[in-house]
Design a protein that fits this description.
Number of helices: 12
Largest sheet: 9 strands, mixed
Helix content: 25-40%
Shape: globular
CATH class of the largest domain: Alpha Beta
Radius of gyration: 23 Å
Bound molecules: coenzyme A
CATH topology of the largest domain: Aminopeptidase
Length: 418
Amino acid sequence: MYCARAGQGTHGPGHRDTIGAVSLAIRAARTADLPAIYDLLELAFPEASRALFVKQTEADSTFRLRHGRVAVIDDRVCGYVRIFARRMLVRGVPVPAGGIGSVATQPDVRGEGVASMLLRDAIEQMRREGMAVSFLFTGIAPLYERQGDRVVREPQVTANAAEAAAAASASLYDVRPAGDADVPRLLALYRAATAGTTGAVVRTRRTWRDAAQSLGEADGDAFVAARHGRTVAYIRTRCRSYGHQVLELEHLRGHEGAVMPLVAAAGRIARAHGEPLVALVPDGHQLAIALLAIPSTTVTTDVRFPMMMRVLSLEALCGALLPWLSTRAAGHPGPAFRLKLNAPGESAVLDVRARSVARRGNGAAADAELDAAATLDALLGQRLPGARCRPRADAGLRKRLDALFPETPLHFWNSDRI
Ligand SMILES: CC(C)(COP(=O)(O)OP(=O)(O)OC[C@H]1O[C@@H](n2cnc3c(N)ncnc32)[C@H](O)[C@@H]1OP(=O)(O)O)[C@@H](O)C(=O)NCCC(=O)NCCS
């Protein structure tokens, strides 16, 4: 329906398209657009408050006007997509990542491809900024699947509040409410606990405090656990319509015993509200273990708004991961082979040697190939790639491939959700 003609926006390239005789421009937001953007978001997301969108924009120190992508028809903002510039750990390596959120189209122009065009424009903008991966949360996966995004799942756990509250009667740890002065220590605990993971968002004191503005955490909803006066673990929670939500929990290695008292503290709040305790938890995380020890706990990965991810730049992602892959190859020596990886619109060939990994020219012949879904899984560590490579590899090669790209559960907390 639209015929795209390249145009020039105020902040980097934009697009000028037409719908019938009407002109549609896709460009970076301008300060003067912000009230109209908030109006649109308020209309498109009636369950969220306007204040949330204002805070997510104006209290987020990472926001730049070029991260707000607007579709304009006759000077009216008719669509919006927001890019959240983050750094995300992929197998412990920080890579530039773009979160996609606040996707909205005015009701009278829906179904005309506006959101799809804005998403394509956002992908171009994220690539221009050197971002390697993108992530989002949605209840409309097909809209994003056709742009190359893929659902990645974390288990959602629901625990009975009274049982959780009673879960730790005696403990070696002192639990008290967390305050702003705890942020530097909590940040250090978070960094130590997320080292080597996939999916954790890299934070600073500033971004920690930025997020606190829009998360809606109330005073008394976060706790720290201390042993001999030293803070070794924390939990952050907030009230949701469907339960009291654990935003995140981290602990210092060796202090797994601090987890249950923190869960119990959160359970007491949930019990007072008459709500279950709910949490999105990395598989195998100590919080999952603690919640699963509560008898009536249920787990599902079939969540209403799952996370989706995609590779934005295979070149950037492979470049960032090469040292890690080489270390991995050295630790798991074996037969050399060439592996072709695929992402939307891009491919790369890895030269896996006995004890290292290097990049090859993209035209190089390969012994095995992973399609885009298997490539994303392999790089993030979502599923072992060996069984999915083509042509079907022999057992030795499959074993080495799986050793090179081991499974790593996603370690993403709701506090970084956008
Ligand atoms: C979702 C939304 C942004 C789509 O905008 P749009 O400009 O109409 O999108 P497009 O025309 O590019 O594509 C729409 C596609 O998404 C599908 N879609 C839109 N809303 C959907 C829904 N609630 N459930 C399932 N599919 C949906 C359409 O069927 C269409 O698919 P098709 O082209 O195969 O028919 C718009 O409906 C909106 O603002 N909704 C309210 C806010 C919202 O839910 N945002 C998304 C949050 S992840």
